Amino acid sequence: MTDLSQNPAGAAPRKHGGSLLEKSPHTRKRNAAETRFKAYGIAAITAGLIMLLVLVTTIVGKGTGAFQQTFVTLNVELLEAKLDKKGNRDLADIKKVTTFGYAPIIKGAMEAAIEDLGIETSLKSKELAGILSKDVAAQLRDYVIANPDQIGQTVEFRFLASSRVDGYLKGRVTRDSIVNDKNISAEQLDLVDALAAAGVLEKTFNLDFIFGADASDARPEAAGIGVSMLGSLFMMLVVLALALPIGVAASIYLEEFAPQNWLTDMIEVNISNLAAVPSIVFGILGLAVFINYMHLPTSAPLVGGLVLTLMTLPTIIISTRASLKSVPPSIRDAALGVGASKMQAVFHHVLPLAAPGILTGTIIGLAQALGETAPLLLIGMVGFIASNAPETLADGLLAPNSAMPAQIYEWAKRADPAFYERAWGGIIILLLFLVTMNTLAVILRRRFERRW
Amino acid sequence: MNDMTLMEKTVETQNIKIAAKDVNVYYGDSHAIKDVNVEIEDNTVTAFIGPSGCGKSTFLRCLNRMNDTIDICRVKGDILLDGEDIYDKRVDPVQLRAKVGMVFQKPNPFPKSIYDNVAYGPRIHGLARNKAELDEIVEKSLRRGAIWDEVKDRLDAPGTGLSGGQQQRLCIARAVATEPEVLLMDEPCSALDPIATAQVEELIDELRSQYSVVIVTHSMQQAARVSQKTAFFHLGNLVEFGPTGQIFTNPEDPRTESYITGRIG
């Protein structure tokens, strides 16, 4: 050691000569490279965060409007002369009055309201009623059929305003944009302003958007996502009931019992490949097998669930196998060493330890399936207008329905910009579900993670 | 127990518990164990020593068919337990492992309570008819594992929360709880500190009265301290097998001597 520390004259010069207090050129270069790399990383993350921020603000900014809707509060006199000419309150007779028969009543109610409020307008009664939704007559008729004893009375109603009026209050429709619009005129907007000032017309939170059914092209203001949410729920039930047991059983067999040979290798490779297959391929498979061959009903959540099961299985199998693999082999040895059979070792020791991982994988698979649209296009779950919520489990599985992402797609492609707003609103609800599910997955993983 | 007492250790002629005849083990193409013949006696501690990769652990795992879990492993030859071939087609390895217990290199308690760790074996083999009997078995096993006094107040605590030495003694207690006849130990002290090692060694000596113990060890001192018979493995061959005292003081094979004196290994 002495010759190293003393470096006698004549010996080879030391490789790391120079003071430690001064950085050598080599070190400086190395540090600069490291600093540069860190800067790239920070730049990449910043770019990602900015994108996310833009995405979230856009979605929230455009979508929150869908949760508010303009309503007009009116006192309607349910004229016996129009609704029940015979006066005997016979439900069959009352039902004979179609929604057209209610139009005069609505017009009358509007006229009365304007007179009461002392608003001056040159609009005709038909134009007065034009600021209300086309849904109003049906709403009124439903009420009368449900409460025939109210005929002849004056009842207070909250009616949906038409989508143009709603858009005017939300800033989507302006006096400039309606120049060529046949559905609404400047005079009508004057009336809207006057009604709003009087407090008869106001914008409030719209629960019907979250729980209601979709509506036809002419009535965007009445459309809601609730029924398609139920469609998604029933599909998820099918996926959970099929994909979890099948996926877990397949993974346990492949991971713990199957011999290592070319056949299991093939299966393994193909499962990984299936996870990367575009979802539309599963859609056409579902169309060919479940609908064309097995003759299951089209647009049914059962079929949607079956197709999404096929799509989710690889995800569940891969994550289940990964979590089974992460259980240390010493646990299996320990169980086998005290004389447990292979199955006892798996079910008593390995599976409980792998359960949080399996659950996490399943939830993430479900979240993926929940947001899937493409396969639903092919089995007819897009474009169907579900007007009534299913009442029984069988109904929910077999009756035609839509699903949340399909509903969003459907709204986005409709012409009326009022639907566009609803599409964004639907995306907010869908994202809330996905974020909740993913958070649940993270919490489960944190909560049950074991160290050994 | 020091070296001076080695020669005085009495090696009584006893029943042969396990007899291995011409055992060959292959991992795929590699020949791990070559023509091993060995006779393991009852109520004796038999130590397997040898350099790393010499096949001593592989051979140990053949004795309770733990190698069955490795797909590419093939075993040829006969291993007789009480005169019965354990590789016979009619033998269920699970039944065999209840008779031939095993303690592993790394302490591997189940991530469950101390009680459940010990009770697991008796439960799956139906050794207890009721809770009281099970309690009794657990206490007896923990006493035999020389860990009862340390854990009797916290049987519900997780087994993984114990110290390394305690975990290994818990694993020994778990192995004896199923009432095996042979206890295989694969380097049971390699993950333990000297104090814990001393406790486990003392325990092994006590276990000898009821079981036939086979221990694989890297430490020659340990083999000398705990065993009555020693087998030296080298490159898959059983080089020498005999009374521990003789192997350590007067080995017949030059390879054994080289290993013991530290020239190979």
What's the CATH topology name of the largest domain in chain A?
MetI-like fold
N- and C-termini, Cα separation of chain B = 25 Å
CATH H level, superfamily name of chain B:
P-loop containing nucleotide triphosphate hydrolases
- Please provide the count of β strands of chain A: 3
CATH class of the largest domain in chain A: Mainly Alpha
Computed Rg of chain A: 33 Å
Number of domains of chain A: 2
Query: Which class do the helix and strand fractions of chain A yield?
Result: mainly alpha
CATH topology of chain B: Rossmann fold
- CATH class value of chain B: Alpha Beta
Radius of gyration of CA atoms of chain B, rounded to a whole number: 18 Å
Mean pLDDT of chain A: 87
Describe the fold and architecture.
The complex is a heterodimer of chains A (452) and B (265). With 452 residues, chain A is mainly α. Chain A has 2 domains: 142 residues, no CATH class; 223 residues, MetI-like (MetI-like fold, Orthogonal Bundle). Chain A is built from 20 helices and 3 strands. In chain A, α11 runs parallel beside α14. The N terminus of chain A is likely disordered. By secondary structure, chain B is an alpha/beta fold. Chain B has a single domain, classed as 3-Layer(aba) Sandwich (Rossmann fold). In chain B, 36% of the residues lie in helices and 25% in strands. Chain B is built from 11 helices and 10 strands. In chain B, the strands form 2 sheets. In chain B, strands 6-7-8-3-9-10 form a 6-stranded mixed β-sheet, with helices on both faces. In chain B, strands 2-1-4-5 form a 4-stranded antiparallel β-sheet, covered by helices on one side. Chain B is globular, with a radius of gyration of 18 Å.
